[in-house]
Design brief:
Layout (H helix, E strand, L loop, with lengths): L17 H9 L17 H15 L4 H9 L3 H4 L7 H13 L1 H8 L1 H11 L7 H7 L8 H8 L4 H13 L10 H15 L2
Bound molecules: fe (ii) ion (FE2).
Length: 193
């Protein structure tokens, strides 16, 4: 099976252009976090757009964080059904194009979920997020949580995760992909060696 741009879905390779990334994101319309659609109620494109919109409102000065939110779940499209690995797949796909910080924030959305499940008694995870928590490592131990708090990307990773949990609203109207192309382009330009 191949995705737009000729990448093999079974072996994701780095996305090498903004056009390629925007094409992949567009292809996430009507693609879902679980192949049988038993998971979260918005498709991967809608979800990414909602998460990016939340982050733009809450963290207007951090475009890397906003773009990380936009792309954080493309791993579900690249390797359908790999719930435990989707964060790493997303990160590996964008690391070259968008830079190491964006890739780290993307990968950390799973540890951040495990952290918040351990530390926030008011955390409201979707039923699908609760279901997948176990295979993603479960609730962090106090030692793991303390170590995570020392990560330089800790605050941004938690912000992404909170936006992740807020970005699953069926029918919510948010800006589309066109709003994000210049932001993605700017982040990609800054990441270029
Ligand atoms: Fe997500």
């Amino acid at each position: 099976m191949r995705q737009p741009g000729g990448m093999n879905l079974n072996h994701p390779v780095p996305i090498d252009s903004v056009d390629g990334l925007m094409s992949l994101l567009a292809d996430c319309e009507d693609a879902w976090d679980t192949p049988d659609r038993s998971g979260d109620p918005v498709d991967i494109l809608d979800h990414g757009l909602q998460v990016a919109a939340v982050l733009a409102a809450r963290h207007p000065g951090d475009e890397e964080l906003q773009v990380a939110g936009l792309v954080h779940d493309i791993g579900h499209r690249l390797q359908p059904g790999d719930e435990a690995g989707h964060g790493e797949h997303s990160a590996a796909a964008v690391a070259t194009l968008l830079g190491q910080r964006v890739a780290r924030l993307v990968a950390l959305h799973i540890p951040a979920k495990r952290y918040l499940a351990a530390t926030d008694p008011d955390l409201a995870l979707s039923p699908e997020s609760v279901r997948t928590l176990g295979c993603q490592g479960g609730v962090m131990t106090p030692q793991e949580a303390a170590a995570f708090e020392t990560d330089p990307d800790f605050a941004a990773a938690v912000a992404l995760r909170r936006a992740d949990d807020a970005g699953k609203v069926v029918g919510l109207r948010v800006p589309g992909l066109d709003r994000w192309r210049p932001v993605v382009s700017a982040v990609a330009a800054a990441a270029r060696p």
